[in-house]
Amino acid sequence: MPVSRADNSVLGRWWWTVDRWTLGAIGVLLGFGYILVLASSPSVAERLGDGRDTLIIKQVLFLAIGGLTVIGVSLLSPRDIRRLALAGGLVALLMTAATLVIGVQILGARRWIALPGFAVQPSEFLKPCFAVVTAWLLAESKRTARFPGGLIAGGIYLLIVLLLKEQPDVGMTAVITAVLFAQFFIDGLNLFFVAVGVVLMGAGAVGAYLMFAHVQARVAEFLHPHGANTYQVTTALEAFGNGGLLGRGPGEGRIKDILPDAHADFVFAVAGEEFGLIVCAIIIAVFAFIVLRGLLRLLSETDRFTLLACSGLLVGFGLQAFVNMASSLELIPTKGMTLPFISYGGSSVMAVALGIGMLLALTRRRARGDGS
Question: Which of 167, 211, 351, 372 is the most buried (most CB within 10 A)?
Fold first, then answer.
């Protein structure tokens, strides 16, 4: 039944004020997530010694909860979003610190906390919460004289970076750095400090290369793609070549049988082999549509908090998608970062759903001056 514009219920008001185009695009990504988990997970589950349907059942549940999270969070008011970001960010920060003590170590990194049936990566939830909290601090510093919002945001950022360094998680650090820099830039950062920030980020990249052996290894693999340790990347590129324009067909791919991270970091390669260039281009277009539509809607936004928060959320979302797909195509050094709503992973799905729900909530049409 269509929803009437006269419907004054919570869902009725939500339907006519939410950005339905972005909501529809998220639905498309969830659909691709269901399809690709069916394609990639059974072979991975068998290699891990689980039942063929184990990962499918888990991811279907994660995607269902993620979809409900998007809708549920998008029903909230801007004030509630701020409260949720503060509370969620504090919990995520404490749990990220806890990973250094009770975390599970996987491939040399201690980023996960084991729970019954799955492991959670708390740092994933820092991204959307940090973007909203930073936006509130910067907006409040403009509204209230002598409120050191920028300094507080910088202090929180440094604390997060210190925790991520100990795990270590260079990719997450890079995304959060990009979010903070983008928000400071949009807030009117002096061009001199913009240049200083660019130099510092470059120095940070060099420092990460010098400090962490796994970063050196991945850069070496990128610069020498035919070396002995480039199996996953070269195999992923072969998958795109095998898929061609239209793909080999659902279930006909071979890459998922031999690629260890076919269901997670390299799920885009599975899409390329089984569904071809056209479907991959559609996936890229959907991500681009969500980011560009969000940024274009912000051109007419007058509320500083909404402008900064949504910008940060969109930068984090778009950068995560770009890093995953560019890594699969060997355009950048490989980085263990999931493709939003498509890669396997409960923490990733829930964190991205939280961020998109916040974005939809903040961009809902409201009466002028309604910040409730």
Answer: 351
